[in-house]
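Q: Can I see a sequence and its folded structure?
A: Here is a first one.
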Amino acid sequence: MTHAEATARAAFLRTELHRHNRLYYIEARPEISDQAFDTLLRELQDIEAAFPDLVTPDSPTQRVGGAPIEGFTQIRHTVPMMSLDNTYSEAEMIAFFLRLQKGLGRESIRCVIEPKVDGVAISVRYENGVLKHAATRGDGQTGDDVSANARTIQSLPLRLPADCPQTLEARGEVFMPKEGFAKLNEERESAGEPRFANPRNATAGTLKQLDPRIVARRPLDIVFYGIVDASADAAAPADDLFSAAPGGPQSQSEVHALLAKAGLRKADLIWKADSAEGLLAAIRELDEKRKTLPYETDGAVIKVDSSADQRELGATSKAPRWAIAYKYQPEQAETRLLAVDIQVGRTGALTPVARLEPVFLSGSTVSNATLHNFEEIERKDIRVGDLVVIEKAGEIIPAVVMVKKESRTGDETAIPRPPHCPVCGTAVHQDEEQVVIRCPNPHCPEVVKRRLEHFCSRGAMDIRGLGESVVAQLVDARLVRDAADLYDLDALKLAGLERQGSKSIENLLKALAESKQQPPWRLVFGLGILHVGVTAARTLIEHFGGVDAIAAASIEELTQCPDIGAVVAPSIHAWFRDPVNAALLDRLRAAGLTFTQRSVEAASDKLKGTTWVLTGALSQPREEIADLIRAHGGKVSGSVSGKTTYLLAGEDAGSKLDKAAKLGVAVVSEEMFRAML
């Protein structure tokens, strides 16, 4: 094939593949089989491999993800990405419509009602018909450039059709479909990795990956709700979020039409209404039908249809006056409580779990629910046999929120506090200040399993290959009783485990050897000391310099360490005074684990004398950014206080942002933080 022939054929294949992608993902009317599509894609890949200069940014071959990037650059939004005000009742919804009538001076106002997708906001820009970049909301003015990750989303066109504006900027929501999320969690569980809490968390974490190849393996999708720029050339964009750009669509209805024309997926369900009664009817109908949608929704978005009306109503400093989000109450269901099981955690905590008559709730069949603790059971007077109301507000395991006592027959039975551990039979213990009941036996098989899982977890010693199933086998076979026993394992001992071939055994032994070089703060966290999380573990090592110094410290000396208070210090002190724990440390030291913090040459002292708190979604894992702060002389704390110098806030920052505002703590974006370095 000559270069000219390859150029023509590659152009044809790109056009065909884009067309078939649109037919499959947007219009749901595919013309060819998956096998035929793959054949075309492989032919294009072969041509591009033979003629690398023919690879274009909009080529369908670029969806697999390129090489990892060092970090996210920042993109300033041409139009600010504003938030929406929320309302939670129909009365507030009526009040919103009355404000619209007052602002526009008329009774009938045409509005559009769309599902509020529970995902991550994104802005996507095309120039000359080709995808230029995609950016997260960020602080509303500036967001992270996630173009490499966005290109892996199959339903996102890399090139626009020739018959629509070739300069186009659209706003949408990246999400993870319910079905894809369930499958992803199954795969993570099989690999011994922690399950994602909900699709939104999984989506946010995926978009923040620095390796697009990982993103390409995740089932991300996207739905669009607005256009802020649409023109034949790079004309000036609109003034406000969702408002029509000059020469672009002049209503939300026209926005929907242009999105469809451009091949950008829009909401699956859309209503129109021109009265308060009509709005409420649409919101109620959406609440019934949203269960059938492929993505999670948490509300309805109501927008004034006309762009001219939008401009007349204007916006506050934070949100448009012509749009609002109606939030639905968390979905609930009634079912029968059949039994109560007791789970034993790594600290010995006994957690009651409700076994339910299976019921469909929030897109999945639920048969278990958390009961939190026995004090909660007594407060709500929950009994086996009760008809209960369960609620699933975004988390995997729903909770029992109330009992339908009026439905009782008299056959229900009380749920007593267990006097003994259900696994090892040891008498339970409960501190006066706490509601948690614990098994005090450190050798309880379930406690040992949970402790080992924690010790090996990614946040602690990060020993890959030692997931839940392998740990359970090791404990049940009495090969391992504590963390130190892990370092006595060899190929012969591991050969008797299920699903452990020679390669798996080799990798596991290598991971164990590598874990000996982990910094000592990981060891402190991995020990599972009550009340000691990642931040406290790092703070302790930074303050004392090593594990032995922490072990030798008095309660008073421990409380002098930042973020270690009157509750945590006695817990740490007691743990290191326990003879069993002291013997464990001796064996871990003998195994060659790192007990003393190695001195690391500081990159600079630019942040010397500053104390930072991190919150929200950032471009890298928080621990990596925390390391960066420390490398430049700063300190990192887990909570905002009067001693905090800066709060580094990413997207979806929560209560820490409010506390920083109250205390007058300076809030900086990640872009500002990078500039400081």
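Q: Show me another, different protein.
A: A second, unrelated one:
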Amino acid sequence: MTDSIENQLYPDVVKAVRRITDRALRLGKSTPMHEIRVSLGRKRHELDRLEREGFIRAFGDNYLPGLRAIELEGHNAAKLVRECTGPVLWALKSLYKRNGAKQYSAEEVRAAADAIAGDQTDPEVIAIGLLFATALGKYIGSWVISPDGLVTSVTPNEDILDFESIHTDWEEVVGKLQPAEPPETAESPAPEAAETAGATRGSRVRWEEIRQLGSGGQGTVWLVRDASRVNLRGAVEGIKASVAKLATPLDPAQTDANAATLAEKIRAYQRADDPENCAALKVLHEAANPDDLTKQLERMKREIEALQAVNHPNVVKVLDANLKDRWFVTEYFPDGPLSGKKHWGKYRGQLLEALLAFRPLVEGVAAIHDARLVHRDIKPENIFVSPERGLVLGDFGLVFFADEQKTRVSETFENVGSRDWMPPWAMTVRLETVQPSFDVFSLGKVFWSMLAGGAKLRLWYCHQEEFELENMFSSDPDMRWARTILDKCVVEHEADCLPDADALLKEVERVLAAVRHANSILSPSKGIRCRFCGVGTYGRANIYEDPSLFKHFGLPPTRGADRAGRTAMLRCNHCGHVEWFQLHGLENSGWWER
């Protein structure tokens, strides 16, 4: 791999790629996601680019190195991978011939490789080979990775019967992963020609309308098919030709071949409207007057620029645009927005599931804030659900550019955003004062709504009795952890709110780690389940009324009064287990009473 590719990436991103690759080459294992995300810091949004360009692949809770990552390491690394992957593919071909498409364990693959080689195969060769056989993606239908990152079993598909040379396959796949040469840089357009420049000169011919998805005050959204990916007319013509050939008497072998061709053409026609071949086309309505048209076009231009400025898997991507003709195309998510009723049951009262889904969304908003943008319209209707990418934020129609010029389209005192989701301090204020905390407040309300099962929270009243999550889910003591996030987002005054999504992300990660490790917020008045018997709950023991407690624990009774001011004790009402807390000198000594 040439140095030019390496120079396109940040040094810490290259380091992360090499860390994943080194682990795979030494141990035949993938790398846990959390290790890489933490090491990348604010460059976490580059993970999407690394995956898209073939450097890494995400699988469950792990990252696998792609073949381009191996090329980045040089000839010796590529040679090692080819030498390990070849025996694995030959073994899978042998197993497929005998038993067909089924799941084969690593031990079965090794035994088959031993039979072919007439000798014992090194386990490390099999481990590395299995890992990178999945990277080729040509012969493996599915695979399973263990918690420690090893590929434990694979299921080959029928294409494995065509395997002949790992060297040929390697060159073929790596060649496809090479990025296209960047287009020559054109001269910057004049300001008056900006609306027809760059990525806003798309061709509508590429997008074939399927059906209308919705319509609003600004425009209409259509589900469209990408004609550059699907040749629907060609598939229809192919079906017609295959049917005509089948109607002509031929020898049985030729008839079978024509039938197979017809079946393939029919499958191609049926796959034409698969989600990966579709997109969402937004077309502006005709403006009532020239001033409205100018404002509409400017707002659309800003939305396109904002979408192009942020590269993150949890932020929707713009695929094509033509500002002059008042349309642009974004990714399509067939599962719909988070506001759909079918999505709320998954998170209602499920703190861990909600946190795991919420965290990547917050990370996407952090990337928006890093690009000096404020979304201003975060709400469930604008958050789409993707099986692969989780919660994806879209609709940048109200985006605010926090640049020196304070680029904006809205009037100075115009309310922006949806009133149910915007912070109280943003109502009827000058837009020049809009800060990333605006989005943080909205994210907090989205998080509350996820846990509440789709309900709407009035203003900032998350601790009023009817909206208190701890009351709604009183049997779940972990729900108290939600308070530590909400109290820093859903607040009346901006000064009490976290400043941006990056700060919120740190808070979410802290709470997520605590919930995963079953930590408790010490609130004796609400009860904490005993961590020994698991039956009783801890309650505050009054050491003032019973000074003998000090004696039972080997403490001098005469010093009880002194110790009482610095000590707290919890006792299980079932098994009597006791927990002591020394509070003297702790700044947060009152934390566990909240």
